[in-house]
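Q&A FORM
Asked by: J.P.
Topic: structure of Phosphate regulon transcriptional regulatory protein PhoB

PROVIDED:
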Amino acid sequence: MKLLVVEDEASLLQSIIEYFTQEGFLCEGAMSYQQGIDKMEDFQYDCVILDINLPGGSGLQLLKHLRQNKKSEGVIIISARSSLDDKIAGLDLGADDYLTKPFYLSELFARVKALIRRKYASGSDVLEMSNLRIDLLLKTVSWANQQVFLTKNEYDLLVFMLTNKNRVVSRQAIAEHIYGEETDNLASFDFVYSHVKNLKKKLKEKGCGELLQTVYGLGYKLSI
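REPLIED BY: S.T.
REPLY: Here is the structure written out as tokens.
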């Protein structure tokens, strides 16, 4: 899962990124309104953790920009503002949750997990498609009750494809989801082919057939 944290307090930003990285998230940070806008326009995220008070603009303005541009990222506002009016304003603009500072990182993590469950798995910890089953909590994959052992990148790729099932996903989109902003430093996206090839092989060994398909010249699609 890919996370963006927009927070101008450097120590809190670093703490959140370190915590979620340890939990297996790909995390990126932004410390101003403009940095947040740039990140959201260039990349796609599963969840955005968003402070209200930012250099250069309000986090609420950033949230409004996000929703006006039909971006589907889940958003959790973190703010020192605890008034009911601020909470209502954030939720009315399209935030999924609102957490008042100070807070425990474990609570923030629980809220992010809950948001992801609602967004992708109808409130469950499990993503399913045909006989494919991904446990988001245990980070395990199985096909017809046979466990499929994947590397972290293969797991991230499969989750990304399943959350975009029946859509064609480009190699660039896959690269950005797995490596985030580091994608800009890559000479090519050839490594995506290797990850897809290995994932296809492991799934086929369990008898799932052509679940993951290559759409030549465009990218890849996960469908029955």
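FOLLOW-UP: The radius of gyration is 18 Å.
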